[in-house]
Write a structure and sequence with these properties.
This protein is an all-alpha fold. It contains 14 helices and no strands. The protein has one domain: Orthogonal Bundle (ABC transporter involved in vitamin B12 uptake, BtuC), CATH 1.10.3470. It is globular and about 60 Å long.
């Protein structure tokens, strides 16, 4: 067994966890406000192609990241309008966002299909720290956006459980009638955090395109990561700190087939190992679709339920 291969696998798991953390944090903020958004995959795809086109045209990776994040926020404005203002079925609205986002990415990306990513994010140089055995490759060979994702998860935990706005956010997802009785606008809070969640998702899609992808291919760019991000929120029990561990774990399962292939381990078929994260995703989505199970898992009690004033 080659220890270096497994160390590299863990390091790659942290890298792959970046998009998962942004996508799941965006979903977590949205769901903590009581809004269910299943459209993460569509947002990631649209943000990815938008960031690619913007970075390619401007020559700046930062412009690409900013454009991708803005596109994510704009797309979730649609979902916020349907789910919060018009009180449409949130599952249907989210799935429509997947279809719309995928179609938009296909339309915008058709001329760029197969085109190489020239402007890419580079890892930060930490000097001698990168040469530390085991810890060096795992902790000190990533780009600034990966470290930002981890810092955001830690900050989100403090925000949710140690600040007054975080208390208002949790209350909106658990008991919106009480929030309304306190003179706060439930609709305003839900729209604000749905759009903010979309911005985080957009940043995750942009990073995936500009740091990980060699070229734009719609069918292979996200590869279902948006659905895994939704499952990760359930896996983490709607708690940001758990997302870090869960994202790295899911990231490890995503690259496990390649590690086993490099080690020439064929006792377990690569087809089965490739299925692992998606099987977990299906289980989580089934649990998410059953209200009785959702509450047992620790989800916001009013998740997916439109709020109508004076209807208690």
């Amino acid at each position: 067994m080659n220890d270096n291969i497994w160390i590299l696998a863990i390091a790659n798991s942290v890298t792959l966890a970046t998009t998962l953390m942004f996508g799941s944090l965006g979903a977590l903020f949205t769901e903590r406000a009581g809004v269910l958004n299943l459209g993460v995959e569509g947002v990631l795809l649209s943000s990815a192609i938008s960031s690619f086109l913007a970075a390619d045209a401007s020559g700046s990776v930062w412009v690409g990241l900013a454009v991708g994040a803005i596109v994510g926020a704009l797309l979730t404005c649609i979902h916020a309008g349907l789910a919060v203002i018009l009180r449409a079925n949130q599952i249907v609205s989210g799935l429509a966002l997947v279809i719309f986002g995928t179609g938009l990415a296909n339309f915008l990306g058709k001329p760029a299909e197969g085109k190489d990513v020239v402007t890419k994010l580079k890892p930060i140089t930490f000097g001698p720290l990168t040469d530390i055995p085991i810890l060096g490759p795992v902790l000190f060979k990533h780009d600034i956006i990966t470290y930002l994702a981890i810092a955001l998860a830690i900050g989100a935990s403090w925000y949710l459980f140690r600040s007054r706005p975080g208390l208002e956010l949790r209350a909106t997802g658990d008991d919106p009638a009480t929030v309304d009785a306190q003179g706060l606008s439930v609709a305003n809070i839900r729209i604000r955090y749905t759009v903010f969640g979309g911005l985080l998702m957009g940043l995750g899609g942009s990073w995936l395109m500009l740091a990980q992808s060699a070229a734009w291919h719609q069918s292979a760019t996200t590869n279902g990561i948006g659905w895994i991000a939704l499952a990760l929120v359930v896996f983490a029990g709607w708690r940001p700190m758990r997302l870090i561990f869960g994202a790295v774990l899911f990231g490890f399962t995503l690259q496990l087939p390649f590690t086993l292939q490099a080690e020439q381990i064929d006792a377990i078929s690569a087809d089965y190992t490739k299925m692992l994260p998606y099987v977990a995703t299906l289980v989580a989505l089934v649990a998410l679709s059953r209200p009785s199970r959702v509450n047992a898992l620790g989800a916001p009690r009013a998740l997916g339920t439109p709020f109508v004033r004076d209807e208690r």
